[in-house]
Design brief:
With 192 residues, the chain is mostly helical. The protein is built from ten helices and no strands.
Length: 192
């Protein structure tokens, strides 16, 4: 029962659409109908300002980190921790409050990985930062960060369930970034 409750909590935490809510409340902008139409930090920064984008980034990471931290406190089972992290990610990508149309999950995945495999999260963050600084294209940084996190997750050790979770999150990020990947291949992806 604890495991089911934690997974549900993970999903509900992940499904809070901070980008859509804050952009609407603070700037009067519906990010679902502006820019890329995405509710994540990159689109919020693009259409509502960088400061608000940073705040959304932090909150989206927290909605992955908080339920996973709670699961670590309540149970020692790595499979449950991983399931809670996956549920938070899926909540962000498929939020019940927005008819299951959410964001791409990068910040939420980062929050999950930061708790379960901090070195992998640090590697992903570093790769994102370097490539974003060079190209100013968030999707390039996100995909490179995902690859870096994946490699380090399997090298870092720890419970196998955590490394498998990072693999699953990266695979899902490839799906959520399929439009970005097409634009990158055709050199049509816009910088921030």
């Amino acid at each position: 029962m604890v495991a089911v409750s934690l997974v549900v909590l993970g999903y509900l935490s992940g499904s809070v659409p901070y980008g859509a809510l804050l952009a609407k409340w603070i700037k009067g902008v519906d990010v679902r109908h502006a820019g890329s139409g995405n509710i994540g930090a990159t689109n919020v920064a693009r259409v509502a300002g960088r400061k608000l984008g940073v705040l959304v980034l932090i909150l989206d990471a927290a909605k992955g980190a908080v339920p996973v931290s709670l699961s670590l406190w309540l149970t020692e089972k790595p499979e449950i921790h991983a399931a809670v992290g996956l549920a938070a990610f899926l909540g962000h990508v498929f939020p019940v409050w927005l008819r299951f149309r959410g964001g791409k999950g990068v910040a939420t995945a980062f929050g999950v990985i930061a708790i379960l495999q901090p070195w992998a999260a640090l590697a992903g963050f570093a790769a994102y930062g370097v490539l974003f600084a060079i190209f100013r294209v968030s999707s390039i940084g996100s995909l490179a960060g995902g690859i870096a996190a994946l490699v380090v997750a399997f090298l870092e050790g720890g419970p196998r369930a955590y490394a498998v979770l990072v693999l699953v999150l990266f695979a899902l990020m490839l799906v959520t970034h399929r439009g970005n990947i097409r634009r990158l291949l055709s050199r049509a992806e816009k910088p921030l």
